[in-house]
Amino acid sequence: MLVHRLKENPLITPADVPPSRDDYEVVGAFNPGVTVFNDEILLLLRVAERPRNRPANQQVAPVLDPATGKLVLFRVKNDEYDLEVPDSRSFTYKGQMYLTSISHLRLARSTDGVHFTIDPQPAVFPQTLYETFGLEDPRISRIGDDFYIAYKVVSEYGIATGLLRTRDFVQFERQGIIFCPENLDVAIFPERIGGKLFALTRPVPRHIGPRAIWLASSEDGVRWGNHWPLLPPRPGHFDGGKTGASCVPIRTKEGWLEIYHGADESDRYSLGAALLDLDDPTRVLARSREPLMQPEADYEIRGFYGNVVFSCGAWVTDRGEVTLYYGASDEATAAATTTIDRIMDTLE
After folding, report:
1. Coil, strand, or helix at residue 341?
2. How many structural domains does the chain have?
3. In whole angstroms, what is the distance from residue 141 CA to residue 154 CA?
4. What's the burial of 99, exposed, middle or buried (CB within 10 Å: 0-12/13-18/19+)?
5. How far from chain centre, in Å, is Cα 231?
6. In angstroms, rounded to a whole number, what is the distance separating the alpha carbons of residues 107 and 171?
7. Cα-based angle 118, 165, 200 (whole degrees, multiple of 5)
8. Domain containing 17: what range?
């Protein structure tokens, strides 16, 4: 096996996470960013919650009012002519999409990487005009003493990427929007290359072009440019529908190892890997001939949105041992172990 799923999986379920308020319930605790800080393994979870009591004849969307910092409920009756409900995650009314839950970021802490204690309150809660539908899918990159956290922000203006900086995981400073809609799945390299910061991005074309991983560079981490298409989908493969960055790139002797996610034409999400040149990450040296992981376990196949394994971070030891933390079915957090050598063996 390329990976070994932990027997304790899923490690964190919605039932393990207290909601941010008594009248809400947690429906997802998944897609965590990962880092090590003060001898603890930290997961920065995406926690999705929704009102506990919802009328059966209505669609309900919790939305942040940025003027007051409070959540309000947008309601639509099920018999409205302009209502469309594609799945349990969202609905569209009069051409505008709404989410049935709102996400914030929450810390989980561990000393062994398996058993986690969940902080009782959010680490980062929606606050700005661009976060009214929630915060999602953080990826944590340590550069010097600073932790850069690229995260997805969702609002009526679209899906964009924001940036947080912290040194202590207590105070988080918003750096603003670094990639405008629609751009997501951003992972910042954990060191400068040739004096510049680099990031993997995923712009979403609406008319022409594939949903593919791109590369961008920056002097300060806030203003990005030099955009470059990098890892396109491969029709007929596990990543034939779309690709997106998953983990923060891992430095190896052979190059930058990127564990990415790919969806096939039926929207089944798997994990693959690619190797990029250490000095010129626009150069793709190799790529997985087969997936590292595909949805196989029951908790990966069935859930809030089934057939999904989706990672935002990994813990890598000095011995090359890798623990992948991943979201299963857009609902729970699970983990699998492998090694750098095993991943390298899948590349060609």
Report:
1. helix
2. 1
3. 21
4. buried
5. 18
6. 13
7. 95
8. 4-344
Distances (CA, A) of 306 to 86, 90, 330: 14, 15, 7
What is the rounded distance in angstroms from the CA atom of residue 11 to the CA atom of residue 248?
21
Question: Mean pLDDT for each consecutive 10-residue tract of the chain (348 residues)?
Answer: 94 97 97 96 98 94 96 96 91 95 98 97 97 98 97 97 98 97 97 98 94 97 97 96 98 98 94 98 96 94 86 96 96 97 95
Helix (H, G, I), strand (E, B) or coil at 298: helix
Which residue, 333, 239, 332, 232, is CA-closest to 293? 239
Helix (DSSP H) and strand (DSSP E) numbers for the chain? 2, 26
Please give the Cα distance from 231 to 183 (Å, whole number): 15
> How high is the pLDDT of residue 304?
78
In terms of Cβ atoms closer than 10 Å to its own Cβ (0-12, 13-18, 19+), residue 69 is exposed
Sign of the torsion formed by the C-alpha atoms of 328, 34, 137 and 118: positive
Query: What pLDDT, on the 0 to 100 scale, is given for residue 303?
Result: 80
Q: Which residue is it, tokens 């309601």?
A: 75
- 9 secondary structure, DSSP code: -
CATH number for the domain that contains residue 127: 2.115.10.20
Encoding tokens for residue 30?
């998944």
Distance CA 54, CA 75 (A): 10
| Number of other CB atoms surrounding residue 263 within 10 Å | 21
Q: For residue 118, which of 127, 130, 109, 128 has the smallest C-alpha distance?
A: 109
Rounded to the nearest angstrom, the gap between the alpha carbon of residue 11 and the centroid of all alpha carbons in its chain is: 17
DSSP secondary structure of 157-211: TEEEEEEEEESSSS--EEEEEEEPSSEEEEEE-SS-BTTBEEEEEEE--SSSS--
Count Cβ atoms within 10 A of the Cβ of residue 311 and give its class: 0-12 exposed, 13-18 middle, 19 or more buried.
Answer: buried
pLDDT at 306 (0 to 100): 79
Contacts of 236 by beta carbon, 8 Å cutoff, 6+ apart:
none
**CA-CA distance, 74 to 67, in Å (whole number)?**
16
Counting beta carbons within 10 angstroms of the beta carbon of residue 181, is it exposed (0 to 12), middle (13 to 18) or buried (19 or more)? middle
At 300 the pLDDT is 94
* CB-based contact 73:59 (threshold 8 Å): no
